[in-house]
Design goal:
With 274 residues, the protein is an alpha+beta fold. The strands form 2 sheets. Strands 1, 2, 8, 9, 10, 11, 12, 13, 14, 15 and 16 form an 11-stranded antiparallel sheet that branches. Strands 4-3-6-5-7 form a 5-stranded antiparallel sheet, with no helix packed on it. It has 2 domains: 62 residues, no CATH class; 159 residues, no CATH class. 19% of the residues lie in helices and 34% in strands. It has 5 helices and 16 strands.
């Protein structure tokens, strides 16, 4: 069977090109103090921020504190020659890791990979939301509620919520989805980016929770389940051997992958194979 795939590849020391070479974490570099200008597309504004935690470069995607906290920005330029009063400036608090190395297969509206190091959830989530603050406290709870993935009506959601969930699914708002063993995770974009977590085993969904404010099975959860059902159908038809070998897959929306992993990059390669 012919598989459509896209390979993000790196060059080996001897000059040969090899697929499936992965870098789980970016190389650690010493921070360089600077004043960086950051452009926020969502607000169409550019502001200056002080940085003493990272080695920043033009094109880096970052989060800041202050009024635009939680908004993803892109570094426009970096100035190492400066004298400022630190209290006058807000700071860069996180740099998003957009390096992706690995092999991805075409799966409808998404790309899918079967290597856990290619785009793990803890890296992908920062593409959509700022890291939690140290003082943030999270709690969760679960009961024995479960339903079959092939019977989503048993989610027992209202008609209006079901309608919105189907719209979110059709609009490809499920930007990222992964299953590792029995643990499932998704990022769904609504008014904000929401995280959906669940357990998946033998076709059954349990422990389904969403980070939104709804206290019931919501539109984000339904959209994630619809995307999971579609992706697993494609995997079963085209990539069953790859999934069976690793017990893992991650699916990322095609536009999202190009936006973060390719757009704004001056170097790197990718290969398309039919």
């Amino acid at each position: 069977m012919v598989h459509n795939r896209i390979g993000f590849i790196v060059e080996q020391p001897d000059g040969d090109l090899a697929q499936t070479q992965y870098a789980v974490e970016p190389e650690t570099t010493a921070p360089k103090k600077c004043v960086a200008r950051v452009y926020f597309a969502g607000r169409n504004m550019t502001l200056a921020y002080y940085n003493d935690r990272f080695d920043l470069h033009a094109g880096d995607m970052v989060y800041v504190d202050g009024q635009l906290e939680g908004q993803l920005g892109r570094i426009v330029d970096v100035n190492y020659n400066f004298k400022i009063r630190v209290s006058d400036y807000k700071r860069v608090i996180a740099v998003v890791d957009t390096d992706v190395h690995g092999q991805f297969f075409m799966a409808g509206s998404h790309f899918v990979t079967f290597d856990a190091a290619a785009l793990p959830a803890n890296r992908a989530v920062l593409w959509f939301k700022a890291p939690a603050k140290a003082e943030d406290e999270f709690v969760s709870g679960n009961d024995d509620t479960a339903f079959r993935l092939d019977d989503l009506k048993s989610m027992q959601i209202t008609a209006p919520v079901a309608e919105r969930g189907n719209v979110y699914y059709a609009e490809n708002r499920v930007r990222y989805l992964s299953v590792e063993g029995t643990r499932g995770y998704a990022v769904v974009e609504g008014s904000s980016a929401y995280e959906v977590e669940f357990a998946f085993a033998d076709g059954e969904i349990s422990r389904l929770v969403c980070s939104c404010f709804c206290g019931y099975n919501c539109k984000h959860a339904l959209a994630a389940m619809l995307q999971l059902k579609e992706t697993l159908t494609i995997i079963e038809k085209q990539y069953a051997a790859e999934y069976e070998q690793t017990g893992y897959f991650a699916a990322v929306h095609k536009g999202t992958l190009f936006q973060f992993a390719i757009d704004g990059k001056d170097t790197g390669r990718f290969v398309l194979q039919g």
